[in-house]
Design brief:
This protein is α/β, with parallel strands linked by helices. Helices cover 48% and strands 16% of the residues. It binds ligand NBY.
């Protein structure tokens, strides 16, 4: 390996060892690893082809993969070899591994889920492609300027992305705009703009390197890169105008994880990557099989939310306009290929596009959507409309064009049936199914938590990594003193490591024996970071009032980005930073209470924070968090959860046991009832002197003396439009936190509860989730059968 690295350094990067930077060493090592992936990857592709396996196509606007190097190393089983080789070359292995920039091609849970699914598909040996966009700029970088969020562009591609293979030969022309002509009933779309989608392939090799799939990300290029005539005239700007326009499409990831802002560019992005993916898989099918009617036997297309919902009309368009199928047959055939995952009930997040915009950008698709709508109404009179109030409703479109629709946790699926798709569910009672989310144990335990991983492997051997339910055997150790001590030791070493990193990056010293209480996720009102902060201020007040009490020392850790246009979320960030500044400077609570908010939360930061957490904050308003996946990562790594009965929290609590979970707050149905009570938030505030005091302090500028009015908007919102019931759940949350304080004082007992969490989380492996999709939705090759058949 050492020689391979030197060779790559020299012949691929053109550097000699003396002149190589950390980045050069990292690239050289990565290229060596990539070489090792290629054989299994190409071999897997060949086997899928020879066996005519059904392939899964996961269409997602987002793949939040983070760094890849450690994944690649450990999936190939090269941990020791890579470290030895790098050290033999006199280089710092950890520095090299940490040099890789995060591929931040996603906003949050939805994008990270896609990345975990890719890992599980490869580990299970299910032939699959991930299809998405190769954004030039991933999610913005966050910094704090005087406590307020500032955004700057992310530039991961400013250095070469070593893992990918550019496929200049994989090109599809994607049209926009124009008009539709008709010849003897056959429609032809004449777009007036074209861009070319070019594929970039990243191999995704599963655990132990047995199977490899492809993540194919599309980049937009101009059809004619360059207008020579303008150039020769000296008009250089005009010469490259078409290039600039095309590139815009794959330039940036939309940073909004909730509201649909109805931008034309966003619709173009969605169509761009969806159309390229559909054309790509159709070409593959026609080459391999040739019978267009056999498509559903070979193709399972999963739509990750409605963002690729145009796949339905696009598939129908190709079947009708290019392959000559009748409309009704095309719709049925397309539906047999398509399935749709819903990730939200928030009405503002359900995509709707004005018909006028659609007509301008995708005129043929709008016609087809009208036909889909007509067919649906003919068969099911009174069915909810896809076209409504002058909008194209992408949720209804996705539902009608899918043979299965799934929610992402038991509670969420139940609410999908009862709320957003109630009427469609009545008409199609078997279409909605549940597939509770999962997380890959390779990254979220084996990779990020070596201390705990080694302890588990000592006990169980290493087969748990691809069969996570084996962790259940650890339950027998809950009263084993020496095992519990070792478990505590692993957590403590992670906390020490995190403390060192926080002291370097935030300049705040932490006590590793304090309770590390962590809330990391996108900043959103429904996730209620604000409630966590109000509780923190209340605790601070009480510590100051009663300094002699035996307080449990706490470190409150926040991480997360606010969408740049989400004003309230940005105010919450500002308030957290303002409170942190005052509390951290207070000698009265020194050593007892600290607040830290490291900027630019991303996958890599999650990998640092999660293994070091004692308490996991999963405190969304019940009924609002579709599932959550961070909640699973924490529990797997031995944190206890404080949480509401929301999303997958419900199932986590069922698995780990209610005695090992800090439950509080209103239930989803109580939330709905409470909202109907006139003046509910004022009533809640009046009933809670503790909360009143905190709100008063913030209102008076206790934490922002330089700008005492700064947080008036937030406080006013809590009094008058507390849509997410922060005020109603506050007391119950505060009391539950104090209960957690008491339990934490008995560290042995806490550790055995934490162990019960780790030991009970096997079911939340994304391997289980993917097996569920394969069985209930894709009818794809049973896991590993593809491997066995061709072995
Ligand atoms: O998907 C999240 C859910 O909030 C979370 O509960 C769930 O666990 C996770 C995986 O199922 N949703 C999410 O992350 N959504 C987005 O990031 C997102 C991004 C873009 C848009 C909407 C939602 N958009 O409309 O542009």
């Amino acid at each position: 390996m050492k020689n391979d690295i030197l060779k790559r350094l020299r012949y691929s990067l053109g550097k000699d060892a003396g002149a190589a930077s950390v980045q050069d060493w990292r690239m050289a090592l990565s290229l060596v690893l990539r070489d090792q992936l290629v054989d299994v990857w190409l071999d897997s592709a060949r086997r899928a082809e020879v066996n005519a396996s059904k392939r899964v196509y996961y269409l997602s606007m987002e793949f939040l993969i983070g760094r890849l190097i450690e994944d690649m190393i450990s999936n190939l089983g090269l941990d020791a070899a890579a470290r030895d080789a790098v050290e033999a070359l006199g280089q710092d292995y950890d520095m090299i591994v940490h040099d890789e920039p995060d591929a931040a091609l996603g906003n949050g849970g939805l994008g990270r889920l896609a990345a975990c699914f890719m890992d599980s598909l490869a580990t299970l040996g299910i032939p699959a492609f991930g299809y998405g966009i190769r954004y030039e700029h991933g999610l913005f970088e966050q910094s704090f300027v005087d406590g307020a969020q500032a955004e700057s562009p992310e530039t991961w591609l400013s250095q070469r992305h070593v893992w990918e293979f550019e496929r200049p030969e994989v090109q599809h022309r994607i049209g926009f705009g124009g008009h539709v002509s008709r010849d003897g009933g056959r429609a032809t779309w004449h777009p007036d703009n074209m861009v070319v989608a070019t594929g970039y392939d990243t191999p995704v090799v599963g655990w132990q390197g047995e199977w490899g799939n492809t993540l194919r990300l599309w980049s937009a290029k101009p059809v004619n890169p360059f207008d020579l005539e303008s150039f020769n005239r000296g008009d250089y700007l005009a010469a490259s105008r078409s290039e600039a326009l095309a590139r815009t499409i794959s330039r940036v990831l939309y940073p909004d994880d909730t509201t649909e802002n109805g931008k034309e560019l966003r619709l173009k992005q969605e169509y761009f990557f969806t159309a390229a993916s559909i054309m790509d898989l159709m070409c593959r099918h026609m080459e391999e099989d040739g019978d267009i009617r056999a498509l559903p036997e070979h193709v399972a297309i999963q739509l990750n939310d409605t963002h690729p919902a145009i796949a339905g009309p696009e598939l129908v368009r190709l079947l009708v306009d290019d392959h000559g199928l009748a409309m009704a047959e095309a719709i049925t055939l397309a539906r047999r290929c398509l399935a749709y995952t819903n990730h939200t009930l928030l009405p503002e997040a359900l995509e709707r596009w004005p018909e006028g915009l659609f007509a301008r950008v995708l005129p043929r698709h709008l016609e087809i959507i009208r036909e889909i709508e007509a067919a649906q109404q003919a068969e099911f009179p009174g069915s909810p409309h896809i076209l409504e109030h002058g909008d194209v409703c992408m949720g209804e479109l996705a539902f009608v064009m899918a043979h299965k629709v799934n929610g992402v946790s038991a509670l969420h699926t139940d609410l999908v049936k009862k709320t957003v798709f109630a009427e469609l569910h009545r008409i199609h009672p078997t279409r909605i199914v549940n597939q509770t989310n999962g997380i890959t144990p390779r990254r979220w335990l084996h990779g990020c938590n070596p201390a705990l991983r080694d302890l588990i492997t000592q006990q169980l051997g290493d087969t748990w990594v691809s069969d996570l339910e084996q962790l259940a055997a650890l339950k027998a150790k809950r009263s084993d003193t020496s095992f519990i001590q070792a478990f505590q030791q692993a957590k403590r070493s992670n906390k020490v490591a995190l403390s060192n990193w926080i002291s370097e990056t935030c300049g705040v010293a932490l006590d590793p024996d304090a309770m590390f209480d962590v809330q990391i996720k996108r900043i959103h009102e429904y996730k209620r970071q604000l409630m966590n902060l109000l509780e923190t201020v209340a605790l601070w007040n009480e510590m100051r009032d009663d300094p002699d009490r035996d307080w449990t020392p706490r470190v409150k850790i926040f991480g997360g980005k606010a969408a740049p246009g989400y004003v309230l979320a940005k105010q919450i960030i500002h308030l957290i930073n303002d409170v942190a500044r005052v509390v951290n400077a207070d000698p009265a609570t020194k050593g007892r209470l600290r607040i830290v908010f490291p900027p630019n939360y991303n996958v890599t930061m999650a990998e640092r924070l999660i293994p070091a957490a004692d308490l996991s904050e999963q405190i969304s308003t019940a009924g609002k968090e579709a599932s959550g996946t961070g909640n699973m990562k924490f529990a797997l790594n031995g944190a206890l959860t404080i949480g509401t009965l929301d999303g997958a929290n419900v199932e986590i609590r069922d698995h780990v046991g209610s005695e090992n979970f800090f439950l509080f707050g209103l239930t989803a149905s109580e939330v709905v009832d409470r909202r109907h009570q006139h003046g509910f938030s004022r009533a809640a505030i009046e009933a809670s002197p503790r909360l009143q005091r905190v709100l008063g302090q913030i209102f008076e500028g206790r934490f922002s003396p330089e700008d005492p009015h700064r947080h008036h908007g937030l406080i006013g919102m809590l009094y008058d439009h507390d849509h997410f019931l922060v005020t109603c759940d506050f007391d119950s949350y505060y009391d539950t936190q104090r209960r957690a304080d008491v339990v934490f004082q008995n560290s042995r007992n806490w550790a055995s509860m934490a162990l019960m969490n780790t030991a009970s989380m096997g079911w939340f492996s994304s391997d289980r989730t993917i097996q569920g999709y394969a069985r209930d939705i894709w009818q794809a090759d049973a896991p590993r059968s593809a491997l066995e058949r061709s072995a």
